[in-house]
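Reopening this one. Same input as before:
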Amino acid sequence: MRDRVEWAWHSWQTSKDRFTQAAGHLPGLITDVEDAVRRHRYGHDPQARREVLRVAADLYGLLRSYCRRVGRLDLALLVADRAMQAAEEADDPVRRAAASWNLGHVLLSHNDPDAVEEAKEIALQAVAHLRTLPASTASQAVEGALELVAVVSDARRCDWPQARRRLEQRALPLARTAGEGNIQWTVFGPTNVALHAMSIEMLAGEAAEGLRLADQVDTSRLPSRERQFTFGLEVARCYHLRRDDAAVLVHLFSLEDLAPEDLSRSPAARTMVQDLQLRVRPAFRRKVDALAGRLQLA
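Same output, byte for byte:
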């Protein structure tokens, strides 16, 4: 079961058709893990019980990501809560912190300012708990990922100085200590921190600075196609802010090749294509209309 959950995570982070694959194998995996949890919860083998609960926490983290990406924030919140419960029952501090990271991302997906602020509070509470434990590469990586949740919360609330300061003073040192990695599937490391630095500038409307930072990032080493896609999408959004339609189109085509199912589900990408349809030069109109057709835009 551990191997199946890890394979599902690997598929989710690396496959072009990750949504199709996940829809195929997640239902059976959920059934089997839930059954194992029921059988072991009151069993006489504490080690087996703990390991099953760890597997469950990891699966619920994957389900959070899937549900969030398909727009089911209600289910994403439910499975994030189940991940927290499983990690607590397993008495696994790193997984409990990772569950807080998952919950934070669900809250960041809401437009409600209170939810965005709550995401930061939950992340920093988890950071405070991690700091009471002996430091390890795993705990430092998850702590850094939680700091990035707080960074995004600051940026979403337009507190640009605080977002930049937290990124530089808290997240970056942890990334340098932990190194590149994918602890608890967070993809935390120096490259991910650099992506967030560029994202802050994009959200702040500082497109030129965002593109300058993007030029310094090599995403080829990232173990997640999803993060590569998000980076490319935000580069496209920087060009969109500059009304550089040719560059926007080039990056959208690149994203379609990288992760077509992500592109078709991205509200930001769909908005950029619709804007291109309204203002693009005649020389590019046929390509834009063809892309809009593949995205099933009216």
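So the earlier flakiness isn't reproducible anymore. For the record, Residues 1-87 form one domain.
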